[in-house]
Amino acid sequence: MEIQVLDTRKKIIGEEHPDTILAMRNLATIYSDLGKHTGAEKLEIQVLDARKKILGEEHPGTILTMGNLATTYSNLGKYTEAEKLKIQVLDANQKILGEEHPDTILAMGNLAFTYSDLGKYTEAEKLEIQVLDASSKILGEEHPDSIMAIKNLVAIHAGGSCRHCREPSFQYKPWSFCDTRYGRRECGHWSSTCQQLSSGRI
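Predicted structure:
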């Protein structure tokens, strides 16, 4: 159905009409949900090119599309391409929305994930600490987003290989993190922390 909508809009109102671009985006979302990431990639590139041309580089719709395409690149294992786009998304959000806006914090976390995927754990750690600081300040230490930032930071220190923080029983308690956050940085220490968190001992 969505393919038919897109084809009809291309034929009647043209490639660059906002409704045609919207149909492209919707179809790309469906492809992503179905795991058809190559198909989603092709459409998202078209959507991004159109929005850059029509709306400009810094329009929220353009930035959103950059983020969507970056996610698709990550799903395809194209981490270098994802990194480039996520840096642009973060820079744009920082400039337009400010350092502490939720979208900026989200963009930091997304880029940290890609740095981790690329094995750039130092860069990932730096960003994830900023995410944790901002989330704790704005939302509170026990907010789910702050707790998730703790888990992500622990996983980064474990080099993405910590099995404990991947367990379904993993329990988050932000007050347990004060020693590990600015203290010892060895992976063994972090694995121990994850194990204690997962068992609920701290």
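Summary: The two ends are 52 Å apart (CA to CA).
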